[in-house]
Design goal:
The complex is a heterodimer of chains A (318) and B (270). Chain A has helices spanning 3-22, 35-60, 69-97, 104-113, 129-148, 156-184, 188-207, 222-227, 235-252, 278-285, 292-305, 307-317; strands at 263-265, 270-272. Chain A has 318 residues and is mainly α. Chain A has one domain (30-211, 221-317): Up-down Bundle (Ferritin), CATH 1.20.1260.10. Chain B has one domain (10-264): Up-down Bundle (Ferritin), CATH 1.20.1260.10. Chain B has helices spanning 10-36, 44-70, 76-81, 111-132, 138-166, 170-185, 197-202, 209-226, 249-258; strands at 99-100, 108-109. The relative contact order of chain B is 0.15. The chains are: A mainly alpha (318), B mainly alpha (270).
Amino acid sequence: MSILEKELEEHEQLEQFMARIEAGDKIEADDWMPEEYRIALIKLISMHGISEIMGALPEKEWVPKAPSLRRKLGIMAKVQDEMGHGQLLLRVAEDLLKPYGKDRDDLMQDLFTGKLKFHNVFHMPAKTWADAGLIGWLVDGAAIITQTNMLNSSYGPYSRALHRICAEEVFHAHHGESIIMALAEGTEEQRQMLQESLNEWWEALLMFFGPANSDTTGSSKQDITIKYKIRTSTNEELRQSFFTKYVPRILSLGLTIPDPTLRFDEEQKVWIYQQPDWSKFKQIIMNNGPRSQARLNLRRVSYETNAWVREALSAAAI
Amino acid sequence: MTELNLTTAPENKEAVVSLLFQLADDDFLYSFRGSEWLGLAPHIEEDVASSSISQDSMGHAAMFYQLLEELGLGSADSLAHLRPAKERKNCILVERPNGEGDYMNVPKFDWAYAVVRNYFYTAAKKVKIESLKNSSYDPLAKVALKINIELYYHLLHWKTWFIQLFNSTEEARERMQSAVDRVMKDFGDVFSLGADGEQIVRLGLIEEEKVLVQRWKAQMKPVFESIHLPIPEIPSRTEANGRNFEHTEDLESAIATLSEVYRLDPAATW
């Protein structure tokens, strides 16, 4: 086949592919897909998967400390779900990685070297029990918003995984909300603990959705993911949905949102708010956030300490 | 069997309470050690599986503490969180740390120790729960019935790991052997019923230690044969007998972690 013929064929494949996507078809793991699409999916899904796993760490700190038997059971179940989501997503990513001869071990190595990022929100410290509750309520709440945005993703395996994950995330948000409600209706100290937690996490919650455009970090995957119908809304649209859903709920608990400029502009129909310090965001995504290295180190140490187990398992499999 | 009368015979109640504390404290600490592994297991699939086991075990502890609450000993939460180490009746095996370091900083946990401890402990628990299904204390027999179903899977899980690691690399076998030695050294009080043992057995709450130990050995025999090792002897004495409130310092730090938030305000609703 000449180069020209090959180019023509690829052009045709791409046209057919785009036509399928436009028609709302689902792309499956073994279907032809453009390299750009595959790479975008690998980045997105492996980051999502590894974030679920790294995201278990801040909450895990509070699992043994949860303040009642019921809360201990609840948070144990929740963190276990997160690990389960990580597993589900990494399997989807592994299928996409096959043509490159890569597997989970490569993903772990990429995490350790910083090539594979984990979500910016999980670089923050969880200092109190209220933080554990807030993560369940608002971080999972934010996650539901971004994941719902991709629920009908053009990539079938991801879309199916997200359907399952979102169903469980709803339980998580209830788990978090229940912890928060108990604190909000509790003693003066409990309410104070909750307010401090909100103050601490507000900026991280805004950063959760990422910058509005590529001006902040120099690049953004939003355009590609929207073009291929992997997602529908922009980062800013998602952040606005978060305000709409959660600002009234936060205020109804008698909490103060640490942004005096926050208001809904009736004319423009948008929330006006104080931008987070995006230079912090840039630091975080370079793994220089407050807990970035400590959490990576936890993973690294456990990976190294357990190396003999993986060796033993592969020996037993032969 | 006639119903056990606890209201007119305080010594009967004492025996029931003593046994319930042994069972509750065992699972509470066992689950804690398991939950410290959360996110750090050898692979993600195992993390999901073993955290499910820790969760079940915390559920079992909660059921036992609930039975104590129903006997008027105080709320299940305060029994679990507020009792100091010197009032605990768990065996010392479950209070031992998972390895060097703690779960927050550089935890160099030992998976071989985890597998052996979890397998031997679960096998012992299964023997006890089978016996408790016929306990003269009906509420306990009912709880045993519920727990028994979940234990089947726990046991299968740890047995699979145990055999697999013993039958793999030389390094794995060495690590496993060393873990067996360490676990067995602490195994002396696992089946002990403590100072109230005689009364506990006489009332038919559970069968006697000797019988339970024999069943455990019989259960372990084919497994040890398959890895070509003799069944290790259960020591008659251990460093401490947890059933009689003797513990190591590791229990104190474990309880401090477990109750850190609860102790901020035990009267508050969390």
